[in-house]
Design goal:
alpha+beta; 4 strands; about 25% strand; about 110 residues
Length: about 110
């Protein structure tokens, strides 16, 4: 199983990172006494960006995927059918942050 972190807003997918690959790289680099080449996503930075831009209605999710599914596969899913991709991640993923706009929040004056 691989774990990904995804961040999107009302304009589309903004970030996708492979947490599993970053963790493995950090472990092997530490054992070899070398600096890590792949960085783990900074979740607090992502959350701060989302909170500072509330008008964009950011969502940040963790999602587990079967081995063989790559960052490019998930990016392609968002490019071909963004609404279906977001709904799938919301259903199967774990929400870290959500400022999703609801239709009930819209007020016309």
């Amino acid at each position: 199983m691989s774990q990904f972190v995804l961040m999107w807003d009302n304009t589309g997918l903004e970030y996708i990172g492979d947490v599993t690959a970053a963790d493995q790289d950090r472990m092997w680099s530490a054992l070899q006494g070398k600096p890590a080449t792949v960085t783990i996503p900074n979740l607090m930075h992502m959350k701060l960006r989302a909170q500072a831009n509330m008008h964009r209605h950011y969502e940040i999710y963790f999602c587990d995927a079967q081995d063989g599914i790559t960052v490019d596969d998930i990016r392609d899913m968002f490019e071909s059918s963004p609404q279906m991709a977001a709904d799938t991640i919301r259903k199967l993923g774990h929400c870290f942050y959500s400022d999703r706009a609801d239709a009930g929040q819209v007020v016309i004056t």
